[in-house]
Amino acid sequence: MANGINITTDAEVVPARPGEEKGVLTSLIQELVYTVDHKKLGMMYMGSGLIFFVIAGLMAAAIRLQLAVPNNHVLDPDTFNRFFTMHGTAMVFLVGMPLILGLANYFVPIMVGARDMAFPRLNAFGFWMFLFSGILLYFSYLGGDGLYGAGSAPDVGWFAYSPLTAKAFSRGHSTDYWTLSLLVGGIGSISTAINLIVTIFCLRCKGMTLNRMPLFVWLNIVVAFLIIIAMPPLSACQIMLCLDRYLGAKFFDTQAGGSAVLWQHFFWIFGHPEVYILILPAFAIASEVIPVFSRKPIFGYPMMVAASVMIAFISLGVWAHHMFTVGLTSVSNTFFATSTFIIAIPTGIKIFNWLGTMYGGKLRMELPMLFSIAFLFQFLIAGLTGVMLATTPFDWQLNDSYFVVAHFHYVLVGSLIFTVFSAFYYWYPKMIGRMLDNRLGHWHFWMFLIGFHLTFLPQHVAGILGMPRRIYSYPADRGWEIWNMASSIGVIFQGLGVLFFLINLIYSYYKGKKAGDDPWDAWTLEWATTSPPAEYNFEHTPEVRSARPLWDLKHPEDPDWKHQ
């Protein structure tokens, strides 16, 4: 008998012979390589994402150091372009994607009362494809064929606009590493998305109807479908690029009858749904954290679900707002501007839902809640500047300026990364069994919050003053100096915040206060398991009777909670 489960075996236990004992490190590596446990794979996703986050952050710090003052020479133009490309590619594909897929891998099966993902081996395959794609990208530093035979990272931007990727302008193999990396990563993402869909629809426990699923699960369904729809166009344009570069296919060669704009269509047909692939999980995290720390159920659950589905659907028809300046027709500009305005409606609904949940609640300002409240404020700014850029004449003035840089960093860092931090403080006790240190956590929050706004708020002004993106230096007579200096100083604060976070993760792993099974007095099924959960998740398959099963079990007499 082990933890209430009968374990019988007919095999005799044979002690290991002297010298056959495996070292701790060897055993750990073998365990990670062979595992198909969704929880371990989820933590491997998140750990890999944090490693790439640190690497990409160091590249961003070097970029900001170069731009801190006019006419600077910390980085030469080629190195700047490579850092710029690698930073953007890593943040989107090697940081954002593994962090959200890692959280989904870990918690979706437990939240629906399952013991694992539907296809455990496919789940492991998805992770290793992602990790191989990251290694392949950074391997370009060794095999990219730079000057004098040295390695060279890709320097074509994370969007790799044609004709920059043609053989004439991108010699060697650096662009090929970038292309193959994204192809491999796309296969891994699609396999994980399929696994999530099958798990959610087929492995839900008894009583877990669709209208009782946690919003975290609902939004991950939407994200999984978006991945399946959005990744194939990206893979298609990567394959066409390979054919152009090695077989003379001329898809994007304008001198041979191809179209450089065709690349932009294919890339942004993926690229804008990708924004929502990254931001919908941020919504999912906030939708779990805010109700728990407001001591109220989410306000307008059905509308939250409907808004999420609407966002996913409309996001498939907004891609060309990235292309207002390439010479589209007035009809095209009008359509894509209108669709971009429309997508702001369900997004705004969500903000009112979160505020409605907090209104009148018994707010507890714990660290997960602090990060989620910061997310609300920053996402509001990101949404407002996004609506501004959806206005075609305004976009003509500020396209490819630092105003756009500030906008999408408020989306991806101010929204996604802040909610990921919220998720770590919320679910770390469940994953590790210990609480993260509160003092280190507050240093992390305030340093990162101050640094984030100090870095990216001034970039709005620099963009309005005419500072273009993708420049490695600038003259001293444009009025951009103070804004760039402020942005560069802000990176120092952000770096200190991340350092406090990493120290907290390691310190709390060994010295953190023991969490218990349910330290936040929450109500979803993951808090009904041990901390950390057993490999099989549940001793007995749970049965739920409402959208808040754990709360109903703990507080059946509470009149403020109604069954659904």
Can you describe what's shown?
There is one protein chain. This protein is mostly helical and 564 residues long. It has a single domain (36-554), classed as Cytochrome c oxidase-like, subunit I domain (Cytochrome C Oxidase, Chain A), CATH 1.20.210. Helix content is 65%, strand content 0%. The protein contains 16 helices and no strands. It has helices spanning 24-34, 38-66, 77-111, 120-138, 140-143, 174-202, 215-247, 260-294, 301-315, 330-358, 367-390, 392-398, 402-432, 438-464, 481-511, 549-554. The protein starts with 23 loop residues before the first helix and ends in a 10-residue tail after the last helix.
Keywords:
564 residues; mainly alpha; Cytochrome C Oxidase, Chain A; 16 helices; 65% helix; disordered N terminus
